[in-house]
Design brief:
The complex is a heterodimer of chains A (498) and B (419).
Chain A lengths: L10 H5 L1 H11 L5 E2 L2 H4 L16 E3 L4 H13 L3 E5 L15 E5 L6 E5 L4 E4 L5 H8 L4 E2 L12 H7 L6 H4 L6 E7 L5 E5 L10 H5 L8 E8 L1 E2 L3 E9 L2 H13 L6 E6 H11 L9 E9 L1 H17 L4 E4 L3 H12 L1 H8 L2 E4 L2 E2 L5 H15 L3 E6 L4 E8 L4 H20 L18 H4 L2 H14 L23 E4 L12
Parallel strand pairs in A: 2-4, 3-4
Antiparallel strand pairs in A: 1-2, 5-6, 6-10, 7-11, 8-9, 8-10, 12-14, 12-15, 13-14, 13-18, 16-19, 16-20, 17-19, 18-19
Helix pairs in contact in A: 9-11, 9-14, 10-13, 14-15
Chain B lengths: L2 H8 L8 E2 L4 H14 L3 E4 L15 E4 L6 E5 L4 E5 L4 H10 L2 E2 L8 H5 L7 H7 L6 H4 L6 E7 L5 E5 L11 H5 L8 E8 L1 E2 L3 E8 L3 H12 L7 E5 L1 H4 L13 E8 L1 H14 L7 E4 L1 H12 L11 E5 L5 H8 L4 E6 L4 E6 L4 H13 L3 E6 L2 H6 L7 H14 L15
Parallel strand pairs in B: 1-3, 2-3
Antiparallel strand pairs in B: 4-5, 5-9, 6-10, 7-8, 7-9, 11-13, 11-14, 12-13, 15-17, 15-18, 16-17
The chains are: A alpha+beta (498), B alpha+beta (419).
Chain lengths: 498, 419
């Protein structure tokens, strides 16, 4: 934490804390402005718990008009604002700044409208991802993107981070399932991008805002597509004698024209750990284990499962189990979903990386990770959304040992740099936030970053909205970039992470 | 002077010509840098299949990207293709065909409308317009398939966003922003596009039915069923005869619903859907693979509006509003068909003038939709807004335009005055 550089603290703002609090209490219900350190404490961090910072104040607006007035006030008085949804993000996107007003959107927690005719749900941003599915499942519908923290993460946060999940292989990430948003810009302007129609007029601001990590506007309403639940869902659990075989199998399944709903791989270390932890019945002797899930009609799923079987056998699979019931299918997933907590049992601390690579490079990147593991003398366990090449290596270390922490940081940065080198990306779904900020220059050159910053300045000329996130502050690429977990304790230990 | 600038200054550019036809990125950079320095507006073209869409604007020079073409990298197993922006769509589709893959967003071919024959244009044009075909409600629009791009901004700087992997949340998603920006933000140079396997087979249920209300009811039910259709259109009576196909005996109004996927599954789903919709044999024709493909290809090509003399409007709206909007628009002697399972109207009006157009726009706006004028008579084109926008979004668009193209040299005024 101490090494993390944030934008310069504005001492004039710090000294005006009482005045700002009192002004804000004039805008919204005074009990919704928090200034006492005890009240501020719960907001000092998000899902990236390695970094903590108390905000100057916390505001909890209840209406769009209040959001607009607060932002307008802060803009006019040059006060930084950090928006926050459920605070489950893994890249520090809603970590406060010392001199910021943290805008906690928790009171925007109602579903506004369920519209089956247009197959969409209009909701306030702090409704959880899973609550949307819960609201429509009695009619056989669901909301497709399923980040593992879906029980707790907010839909507004999903939009801000463009969250993915296991099923984004077939159904896309948030950006592909979003119809519209209402946004308040830093100057207080309230506007809507998109709506219930499939396309919107003019520039695609909806696409720009999605994944902009709270830097361009505060989301106050979200309209998402809902889909009819598939008739049949089945999963196969396949063991392989080597990670190369598993990687080749994934590439071949995709190349054959089967697009599974989800396709996951874990290496031996993690398979064993998760099996011990969740008793999922995994093939613990296999060097790599794959879960592949298909959905659709009965015939379709059967045909794909059969094809998967053939491809797996061709790639030397050592075991293959097909789910016979829905319970069994969920059991397959239970272990995978417990991957992170299971890792907490293996070592005092671990860091979770989030790189994205071409599917065909899976084996190469895994070999490199294993080489680096030997080089740094730190164990690593690997979980992947293999179908779309999204890796989550978990590096194990001991945070009490400074040398171990330093090595872990270098190891993590080396993995992400390698992902970029083979044609991948720094982050597949966790976002850049503060975590991978200084690695941006691995993926982009100055001109690319400058273009993005120019857009930021066009919408927020004083750079007051969530500053210090996404774009590098240091001129060098700092060796930072992971989720740090100590003693298996994450900020929300009960939320699955994968 | 950076290496890049040094290289650029070495290319010799004859700036006296009015049409530039660059073959390298370095040439494009030099052209843009010169235009930026001299404040010279540029009209940007690919294969000109859609260049009639948009407002008329004055430009001193034209940048013709038709020679800036070629497939850079195609990895079927990675499900992406990387191409230069001037590459003809036809060439890309031909290449994908060899691996039984496709661009799932089925871009419209406007050639039939404007010139009576196929002209699907360049991939840069397809992305710049962001007009997706009948699978829109299932697979998304063009923008949903753009993994990354490289472009030249209005200062002549080469910029990029995204990459070739599907999962990527590194920085702002500028691929979305440039899709549908009609060449007003950057000159696209390279595009990485997601490709998908072609469905094994396709089957189309053709329901003989002249009534819009009934059609929208069928489409709504189909799209809300787990039979997972990938196309849903309604053609009124006057277009029925445009579809002469072996297995289509009917020549009146029709509702068509497409089911795609593995053969077994397609049979199963098509049967189930026809039961769910309560269809009787006599009101149903079924088109199998080849005929089904022809039907949807004609839809994608807007062939019922082939060589249209008058105007064509593209109206996007929530599907719940379509019936009411059509009922109101019928006052204006309209010929139309419905795509996207009810969410898109392609409409031509017998008489169109500024007053009628503004009434149509108001009606559509009231129903939460918007209009794009795809084809209009020249006299109307000069005075009408081709694209609609509200004042707040106009202000934001102006700022975004300037962040890419500070001197407004790219297609100035093509979308909106001042942008």
């Amino acid at each position: 934490m101490s090494s993390l550089q944030m934008p310069k603290v504005d001492n004039a703002i710090m000294s005006k804390k009482d005045k700002i609090a009192s002004d804000l209490r004039g805008i919204i219900n005074s009990k919704n402005v928090l200034s006492n350190p005890d009240e501020l404490r719960p907001f000092e961090t998000d899902g990236l718990t390695a970094y903590r910072q108390m905000p100057l104040l916390v505001v909890m607006p209840e209406t769009v008009e209040e959001v607009s007035q607060i932002l307008k006030y802060c803009n006019e008085n040059k006060v930084k604002v950090v928006p926050r949804g459920a605070g489950t993000g893994l890249s520090g996107g809603s970590m406060p700044l010392e001199d910021c007003v943290l805008m906690a959107m928790g009171k925007f927690n109602k579903i506004i409208e369920i519209d089956y005719e247009n197959r969409c749900v209009v909701t306030q941003p702090c409704v959880t991802n899973l609550a949307i599915t819960h609201a429509v499942q009695d009619k056989g519908f669901y909301y497709a993107p399923d980040p593992s923290s879906q029980i707790a993460c907010s839909i507004g946060g999903n939009v801000a981070e463009n969250s993915g999940g296991v099923h984004s292989l077939k159904y896309g990430a948030t950006t592909n399932n979003l119809l519209g948003i209402q946004v308040v810009l830093m100057d207080g302007t309230v506007t809507k991008f998109g709506g219930k129609a499939m396309d919107a007029e003019g520039y695609d601001f909806l696409g720009l805002m999605t994944g902009s990590e709270g830097l361009l506007g505060v989301i106050t309403e979200v309209t998402v597509k809902i889909l009819k639940s598939p008739e049949v869902v089945k999963a196969a659990l396949v063991g392989f004698p080597s990670i190369e075989d598993a990687g080749n199998c994934v590439a071949e399944i995709i190349a054959e024209g089967c697009i599974p709903a989800g396709m996951e791989i874990m290496d031996k270390a993690l398979t064993k750990a998760t099996n011990d932890y969740s008793k999922a019945g995994y093939p613990t002797d296999a060097e790599a284990m794959m879960i592949v899930e298909f959905d659709g009609t009965e015939h379709e799923v059967e045909a794909y499962i059969q094809k998967t079987k053939e491809i797996a056998e061709k790639n030397n699979s050592s075991s293959l189990k097909i789910s016979k019931t829905n319970e069994e299918r969920l059991k397959f997933w239970a272990g995978r979903k417990a991957a992170f907590p299971a890792c907490g049992v293996l070592a005092p601390d671990y860091m979770c990386m989030d790189g994205s690579i071409p599917r065909g490079k899976l084996a190469e990147v895994l070999n490199e990770i294993s080489r680096l593991s030997k080089k740094y003398n730190l164990p690593v366990a690997n979980a992947f959304h293999a179908g779309d090449g999204n890796l989550h290596p978990l590096i194990m270390f001991d945070a009490n040992d400074k040398e171990s922490l330093r090595k872990c940081e270098e190891f993590g940065a080396d993995i992400l740099k390698y992902c970029v080198k083979v044609g991948g990306a720094l982050t597949g779904e966790h976002g850049v936030g503060i975590e991978k900020r200084e690695l941006m220059c691995e993926a982009f050159n100055d001109k690319d970053i400058q273009q993005q910053l120019t857009i930021k300045v066009a919408l927020d000329p004083n750079s007051l909205l969530n500053p210090g996130k996404v774009y590098p502050i240091l001129r060098k690429c700092a060796e930072e970039g992971r989720v740090h977990v100590h003693g298996g304790k994450t900020k929300f230990p009960d939320i699955p992470r994968f | 002077m950076s290496m890049e600038e040094k290289q650029n200054s070495q290319t010799s550019l004859d700036f006296n010509q009015n049409i530039f036809k660059p073959t390298s990125r370095e040439e494009i950079v030099e052209i843009v840098k010169t235009c930026y320095r001299k404040n010279i507006p540029l009209e940007i073209n690919g294969l000109k299949s859609k260049n009639k869409i948009g407002r008329n604007f004055q430009s001193e020079k034209t940048l013709d990207l038709s020679d800036y073409k070629g497939i850079i990298d195609y990895k079927p197993e990675e499900l992406y293709i990387k191409v230069k922006a001037g590459t003809p769509l036809k060439e890309i589709i031909g290449e994908l065909d060899k691996n039984n893959q496709q661009l799932a967003f089925e871009p419209n071919d406007f050639g039939y409308l404007f010139s009576g024959q196929s002209n699907s244009g360049s991939i840069g044009g397809v992305v710049s317009c962001n007009f997706a075909g009948s699978r829109r409600f299932k697979v998304g629009s063009v923008r949903d398939h753009i993994l990354g791009f490289q472009g030249i901004n209005g200062k002549g700087e080469t910029i990029k966003s995204g990459g070739t992997v599907v999962k990527n949340v590194t920085g702002y998603d500028l691929s979305k922003l440039v899709s549908g920006s009609f060449g007003t933000l950057t000159i696209l140079t390279e595009l990485s596009i997601k490709v998908l396997p072609k469905p094994e087979t396709s089957k189309t249920l053709i329901i003989k039915n002249p009534h819009l209300k009934k059609a929208l009811d069928f489409l709504g039910k189909a799209l809300s069923s787990s039979t997972d259709p990938s196309g849903g259109v309604f053609y009124p009576d006057y277009f029925g005869k445009d579809f002469v196909l072996n297995d289509l005996t009917h020549d009146g109004g029709l509702t068509a619903i497409r089911i795609e996927g593995p053969t077994n599954s397609v049979h199963q789903r098509a049967n189930r859907l026809s039961k769910e919709l309560g269809l009787l044999d006599q009101e149903l024709s079924i088109l199998d693979s080849e005929q089904s493909n022809i039907f949807w290809s004609r839809t994608k090509n807007l062939e019922v509006f082939k060589s249209l003399k008058s105007n064509l409007l593209r109206i996007v709206l929530p599907m719940s509003e379509t019936l009411q909007v059509i009922q109101k628009l019928k006052n204006f002697e309209i010929k139309y068909f419905i795509d996207w399972g009810g969410g898109l109207i392609w409409a031509s009006f017998d008489q169109l003038n500024t007053k009628i157009l503004s009434e149509i726009k108001d009606t559509v706006k009231k129903h939460q939709g918007y209009i794009t004028l795809i084809k209009v008579e020249e006299d109307l084109k000069a005075s009408a807004d081709i694209f609609t926008i509200d004042p707040i979004k106009y202000k934001i668009s102006e700022k975004i335009k300037r962040s890419f193209d500070p001197k407004r040299i790219f297609n100035p005024g093509k979308m909106y005055t001042g942008i």
